[in-house]
Every structure is written in C-alpha cells, then in structure tokens.
Automatic annotation (TrEMBL):
Matches recorded under PANTHER family: ABC TRANSPORTER ATP-BINDING PROTEIN ALBC-RELATED
Keyword tags: ATP-binding, Nucleotide-binding, Transport
One function term, GO molecular function aspect: ATP binding
Pfam family, one: ABC_tran
Residue span(s) of domain ABC transporter: 2-201
Cross-referenced Gene3D superfamilies: P-loop containing nucleotide triphosphate hydrolases
Name recorded for this polypeptide: ABC transporter ATP-binding protein
C-alpha cells in the first residue's frame, strides 16, 4: 500500500530524515516514537504530500485514501462541528451521517451543538481532529499525537476505536510520545537521529 525508499529531507541544509526506507503492506497497526524534533510530523507530512522530500521516493497504491491528523487540526473556526465535518466529508462525497454521529457520541461530542469551533477546548478540538481522520473509511490512517489533551475516558475510547478499525482491516500509524498499551500494535519503530529503527516487541 505504501513504499518509502531512501527518503531524506533537510530544512535549511539541516538534515531531519536521512535515507529512510519503510513499507506498509496493509493491515498494520504501527507506533512510532522519537524525541521532540526527531521528524515524526515531517514523515507524516511527506506521506501526505504536504511537503516534498529532498531525495528518495514515496510510492502509494492507486487511489489510496489517507486520513490524517497532523499537529493542530485546521478547521473553519467560525463554523460548528457539524458544518466542519460535513464540509470535509463532502469534498470527496463521503458523508456517512450515522457513522459520524456514532463517532461523536463515542467521544461525548455533541454533533448538533451550535458552538463554533473557535470555542472548542483543546481536547474537544483533538477529538474533532481524530473524527475527521477516520470518518471516511480511509484505508490508511496517520495520527500524530492523537491523545494530546484527551481525558482518561476519551483515551480509553480512542484505544478501543483504533483496535476496532485495525480489526476491520484499516492500516494505522500513530506517532506519539505516550505509549498506549491498550492498542494492539503490530510493529514499533523509533525515529532517532534521522533514522527509523524497528524496535523489538515484548
Ligand atoms: N517547515 C520547516 N522549516 C524548518 N524546519 C522545520 C520545518 N518543519 C520541521 N522542521 C524541523 O524539523 C525537525 C523535525 O520536526 P518535526 O515536527 O517533524 O518533529 P516531531 O518529531 O514531530 O517533534 P514533536 O515530538 O515535538 O512533535 C525539527 O527540528 C523542526 O524544527
């Protein structure tokens, strides 16, 4: 589904990722960790074509649908949650109202609230970011620090949701500092000094 070969990127001549190779067959659930500034968000941005590599290739399966939450999710701040999710899903004509309703309920978000996004708390905004990354049945889901700002109940909901999506055949890559033991990861990687290492699992 995704093949990365010899990928490197530098910012202002400062290398961030160096000769990374990484492959996803599909159905993996991957955890990537690494210290601040190790390049986790950069890797996701490269996969999503938000930025271009200095060298190397990223090959994706034809029509690969990617759902992503990277850094601070961007929304139409003066609009409601329902408007934002409808707007985002309508771009690909994939608005599944009952699924979106169910996701909001699981995260204790009121889809029909008149509150504008600009008044959402950090955790509420993060939940909206997670929902937009998974609401269109995306095959590959990339989540950067997904539990930032989430309370314990919501973290539990999140872990269950990820395991369910993985069981249904979605491929999930989570980059984070916090290791969530309730998620059934298939592989764990470490980004260190621009290189990606496969960690041993217990
Ligand atoms: N557009 C940019 N211009 C210049 N430097 C950048 C740019 N984007 C990222 N960097 C640098 O690349 C490095 C990796 O940043 P990145 O955000 O990918 O790290 P991260 O592993 O996601 O960090 P964190 O754990 O803090 O979220 C950092 O040193 C950052 O300053």
């Amino acid at each position: 589904m995704l093949d990365i070969q010899d990928l490197s990127i530098s910012f202002h001549k400062q290398p961030v990722l160096q000769h990374i190779s990484f492959h996803l067959d599909g159905h993996e659930c991957i955890y990537i960790h690494g210290i601040n500034g190790s390049g986790k968000s950069t890797l996701f941005k490269l996969i999503c074509d938000i930025i271009k590599p200095t060298s190397g290739t990223i090959t994706k399966k034809n029509d690969l649908q990617i759902g992503a939450l990277i850094e601070n999710p961007g929304f139409l701040e003066n609009e409601t949650l329902a408007y934002n999710l409808q707007f985002l899903a309508s771009l690909k004509n994939q608005y599944d109202s009952s699924y979106i309703e169910s996701l909001c309920q699981q995260f204790q978000l009121d889809l029909h609230s008149s509150m504008k996004l600009k008044n959402f708390s950090v955790g509420m905004r993060q939940k909206a970011g997670i929902i937009q990354a998974i609401m269109e049945n995306q095959e590959l889901i990339l989540l950067d620090e997904p539990t930032r700002g989430l309370d314990q109940t919501s973290i539990h909901t999140f872990c269950q949701l990820i395991n369910q999506l993985h069981d249904k055949g979605h491929t999930i890559v989570i980059a984070a500092h916090d290791y969530l033991p309730d998620i059934h990861y298939t592989h764990i990687y470490r980004l260190e000094e621009g290189q990606l290492f496969l960690d041993e699992m217990d």
